[in-house]
Amino acid sequence: MTFPKELQETFTSAEIVYLAENELIEVISNVSMNDKLSLISTELPKFRVMSTYKIPIWLAIILRKQNKITVPPPEWLNENYLANKYQEEVTNQTAFTQLPNNWLEVSKIFLKHFVQDLIDNEDVLLKLIQDLKEIRLVKLRKGLNNLNEINLGFNDLSLMEINEFRPFISRVMGNLAKFQKSLENEEGVENYDDAEDPGDDNAYDDDDDDDDLDNRNTSTGGRKDSTMAEANDDIDDEDMEMEDIVNEFEL
Amino acid sequence: MRIPCKFNVQVAGLGYLEETGNADIKENTKLELPVWLAGILSGIPIMSEEGEEVRLLDLLPPDAFNKKIINSIKSNSVNLSLRSVLPNFYSLAERWCFWFEDAAFVEIIQQMLKDRSVVMNDYSFNLNSTNSSNNDEISRFVHSLDNLEKEIFMVCVASHKDAKQWLNS
């Protein structure tokens, strides 16, 4: 494949925003339409003034620019809620608080395109969001001390946050697994030729991209548990309950 | 990369490996062979004159895995300059584990990789900060990374940079 290697194994932030823009949000129309409008990928319902509709974010961005709709912020995007979440994050040192799967992307989109419709001060919101991200990052970094070659679970971590750490973690875990695998080779020296070439950087198995993608597609803005990284194909961690992973992963 | 080995039997016509001008390699000759060659040769079983089965050659532990270095890995792997020990430390270590299935050794290497990667991740965050004393520390650490770690460090820096740029855009 001609795709650059760093783009093959993970998303860029821009790609995740692009994916998040398919999410449906509620909008209030300012205009009336004579008929519904069929687009290639979606359908714009027949708008009536002051009624609410659910449309994809990308469409809302266009319509908002033309002042045809107003976009009320989701219930979690306000000063009170985020400040509470921040407090929760500070007091609970062992887990992440529950936030929507794409809270970072959506709040960023709101601050960029729907600023006029926000109820609270945008600067205050931006600061809260950055604080939240910061504190979650610190927790995540602490959690990295528990890296092992088999599995790693982060509950309530959003796609964007996982994405930032995916290349790093999958590499480290892949290499840990390689060492583990060298122990399981029972034939010893005789089997030498069949073994993977240790110089091959792609030898590890990174199939977690697809999981995260599924997460996004099935999500309706609610919370999602995201599992990251399954690096060793000999060890099947599918059977492992989420609870077990959480217990193992004490922050 | 070459690793030391010891021939267990006399081999005719392989003297050129030793570069001494002799036609044959004598029994118990110690020789540094390329990793790929040593791996293949060590897997060849030979019937000795006494009727026992021996390997053509034995692999000897390379300098990079001597006691002193293993001990310093155990005590403080983060401050160890792995690059000056061996630029391809992990690659050779993996081969070594593969040949000898030494569980204790694997555990030491894994623990080292874990410890060092946590520090790598921490440093990759503030790579571009203006704090100069910190930068010295970071550059010293980066120079101690072996090739595999360096690659991990690079992707780590790239992904954090991308996330940071997006957040501030």
Automatic annotation (TrEMBL), chain A:
<keyword id="KW-0539">Nucleus</keyword>
<comment type="similarity">
    <text>Belongs to the GINS2/PSF2 family.</text>
</comment>
<dbReference type="InterPro" id="IPR036224">
    <property type="entry name" value="GINS_bundle-like_dom_sf"/>
</dbReference>
<keyword id="KW-0235">DNA replication</keyword>
<feature type="domain" description="GINS subunit">
    <location>
        <begin position="76"/>
        <end position="173"/>
    </location>
</feature>
<feature type="compositionally biased region" description="Acidic residues">
    <location>
        <begin position="187"/>
        <end position="213"/>
    </location>
</feature>
<dbReference type="GO" id="GO:0000811">
    <property type="term" value="C:GINS complex"/>
</dbReference>
<dbReference type="GO" id="GO:0006260">
    <property type="term" value="P:DNA replication"/>
</dbReference>
<dbReference type="InterPro" id="IPR007257">
    <property type="entry name" value="GINS_Psf2"/>
</dbReference>
<dbReference type="Pfam" id="PF05916">
    <property type="entry name" value="Sld5"/>
</dbReference>
<dbReference type="InterPro" id="IPR056784">
    <property type="entry name" value="PSF2_N"/>
</dbReference>
<dbReference type="InterPro" id="IPR021151">
    <property type="entry name" value="GINS_A"/>
</dbReference>
<protein>
    <recommendedName>
        <fullName>DNA replication complex GINS protein PSF2</fullName>
    </recommendedName>
</protein>
<dbReference type="Pfam" id="PF25005">
    <property type="entry name" value="PSF2_N"/>
</dbReference>
<comment type="subunit">
    <text>Component of the GINS complex.</text>
</comment>
<feature type="region of interest" description="Disordered">
    <location>
        <begin position="187"/>
        <end position="251"/>
    </location>
</feature>
<dbReference type="GO" id="GO:0000727">
    <property type="term" value="P:double-strand break repair via break-induced replication"/>
</dbReference>
<feature type="domain" description="DNA replication complex GINS protein PSF2 N-terminal">
    <location>
        <begin position="13"/>
        <end position="70"/>
    </location>
</feature>
<feature type="compositionally biased region" description="Acidic residues">
    <location>
        <begin position="231"/>
        <end position="251"/>
    </location>
</feature>
TrEMBL record, chain B:
<dbReference type="Pfam" id="PF22466">
    <property type="entry name" value="PSF3_N"/>
</dbReference>
<comment type="similarity">
    <text>Belongs to the GINS3/PSF3 family.</text>
</comment>
<dbReference type="GO" id="GO:0000811">
    <property type="term" value="C:GINS complex"/>
</dbReference>
<comment type="subunit">
    <text>Component of the GINS complex which is a heterotetramer of SLD5, PSF1, PSF2 and PSF3.</text>
</comment>
<dbReference type="InterPro" id="IPR038437">
    <property type="entry name" value="GINS_Psf3_sf"/>
</dbReference>
<dbReference type="InterPro" id="IPR055221">
    <property type="entry name" value="PSF3_N"/>
</dbReference>
<keyword id="KW-0235">DNA replication</keyword>
<dbReference type="InterPro" id="IPR036224">
    <property type="entry name" value="GINS_bundle-like_dom_sf"/>
</dbReference>
<feature type="domain" description="DNA replication complex GINS protein PSF3 N-terminal">
    <location>
        <begin position="2"/>
        <end position="41"/>
    </location>
</feature>
<comment type="function">
    <text>The GINS complex plays an essential role in the initiation of DNA replication.</text>
</comment>
<dbReference type="InterPro" id="IPR010492">
    <property type="entry name" value="GINS_Psf3"/>
</dbReference>
<keyword id="KW-0539">Nucleus</keyword>
<dbReference type="GO" id="GO:1902975">
    <property type="term" value="P:mitotic DNA replication initiation"/>
</dbReference>
<protein>
    <recommendedName>
        <fullName>DNA replication complex GINS protein PSF3</fullName>
    </recommendedName>
</protein>
